[in-house]
What we know:
This protein is of the alpha/beta class. The N and C termini lie far apart (52 Å). The protein has a 7-stranded mixed beta sheet with strand order 2-6-5-3-4-9-8, sandwiched between helices. A 7-stranded antiparallel beta sheet has the order 20-21-24-25-26-19-27. A 5-stranded mixed beta sheet has the order 11-10-12-13-14, sandwiched between helices. It has 3 domains: 179 residues, 3-Layer(aba) Sandwich (Alpha-D-Glucose-1,6-Bisphosphate, Chain A, domain 3); 224 residues, Alpha-D-Glucose-1,6-Bisphosphate, subunit A, domain 3 (Alpha-D-Glucose-1,6-Bisphosphate, Chain A, domain 3, 3-Layer(aba) Sandwich), CATH 3.40.120; 134 residues, TATA-Binding Protein. It is 31% helix and 25% strand. The chain is built from 18 helices and 27 strands. The site of cobalt (II) ion has 7 residues, from loops.
Amino acid sequence: MHVCTVKxxxxxxxxxxxxxxxxxxxxxxQPHYLENFIQAAFDSLPGxxxxxxxxxxxxxxxxxxxxxxxxxxxxxNGFARVKVGRDGLLATPAASCVxxxxxxxxxxxxxxxxxxxGPAGDFGVKVNTxxxxxxxxxxxxxIFERSRAIESYRILEASDVPLERLGESRLGAxxxxxxDPGRDHRELLESLFDFDxxxxxxxxxxxxxxxxxxxxVTGPSARVLFEERLGxxxxxxxxxxxxxxxxxxxxxxxxxxxxxxVETLFGSAAPDFGAACDGDGDxxxxxxxxxxxxxxxxxxxxxxxxRHARGYARGLAGVARSMPTSMAVDRVAERLRIACYATxxxxxxxxxxxxxGRVTLCxxxxxxxxxxxxxxxxxxxxxxxxxxxxxxxxxxxxxIVRAHWREFGRNYYSRHxxxxxxxxxxxxxxxxxxxxxxQLAGRxxxxxxxxxxxxxxxxxxxxxxxxxxxxxxxRFTDGxxxxxxxxxxxxxxxxxxxxxxxxxxxxxxxxxxxQAALEDLIALAREAARIEAFTGRTAPTVVT
Length: 544
Ligand code: VG1
Ligand code: CO
């Protein structure tokens, strides 16, 4: 076996977005494309000689080939060991857990998250650092710069390493260790939550749940967790076998893409609880019987109820949410007298706050919740957390959330996505809103009065780093908001996200349909940004 230095030329556009480098499979399959990016990533992680790397992913199409290439490149780049999930599978939060537990240099997660897979779908590479979290901006910036100047990469000439069985094998001087993809992570969850209480108070008393793994990475671990460890009836986990095309669907846990689960929970013989995770297991959707928990509300409820969970009984240091996430959690933080931070979209921005011990829980409106137990959002963690709260309180999901609204008021919330719009038109729309927003202050829009408008700029309170242009926010005097942002994970054209929020104090009109409650704001948001004129669209493609 010998190390080859392969000549290559830079590709443009290898700039990681909100969460890793995400492109159509056809782009990743171009000669040397993956290799260039991996070499650029290795070059940007100092100290790889003799170090350990974690490798995993959601098992999507092209992941098997990519994992073998990365293993050979790791061996040629001086790594001493790679811990790789069996069959190359390792959910994003599980990878974060393994990186932290074994103190490795970092990890590579092969996933495009909730984007569809298969030959016509997307592929992606997430790079995590030794903290277990997504590489921060300075590292992704360095990777991009390196990718623009790359002239060669190093790879070992060797045959494929078997990844089906647990255990160790050699690749040149490097050890490849195939690990159980769920074990370390499940052990961590058992230390945080009271599994006996969940089993005894819920499943032993006939509580029924459905977990939809959407044919993605969480299925096998969900079966062990829910059916074996917690005693949920066999068959509670649906679509539990990971497939490289996710059964042809979007592995995206929301009302649109997880519609089968939604129909079950809103059907006649609905179970007590429903949940789903995304492709790489970092997102979650929570449903009660005929009840949908908005991700922003889920974060607020978890923060308010955290004291009932063993791992959080000592209290929360603080909470954080991405800026477009509803301000429901802010009210809980106020009540608990703890700090609440608003960060740009993307989990990497929570890293410093978590590392510095300033926050314990954090979340995003995009179905992401997590805590300081790892440095990624964590789908299964959120599901077990909810079960633990249900077991502690003995009340159904809908009652817990309604009681929360009565106590804190309700932040009616929705996100409208306009997917695959023309990129240039989307950029023009954003420029228009950017210029118009500051001038709206003090003016009336419909029945609302604008308090302020402008671009969100984040100064990290820990290291002072600055992130500009993180979404344009129009705030109204009654606490309502409209936020406009362009997605940093889409791979075709541009995706415009419009976030809408209106606060209703409790006890007010708490049981309205969110789309009805937000009707005026939705119309204002369309007009203010001239969405139809710029994009030609009269309606969003996905509403969550
Ligand atoms: C989206 C979400 C964001 C999330 C990101 C990665 O980004 O809005 O909240 O952190 O996906 O999620 P964007 O830029 O498209 O809005 V995942 O599950 O890929 O790791
Ligand atoms: Co994901």
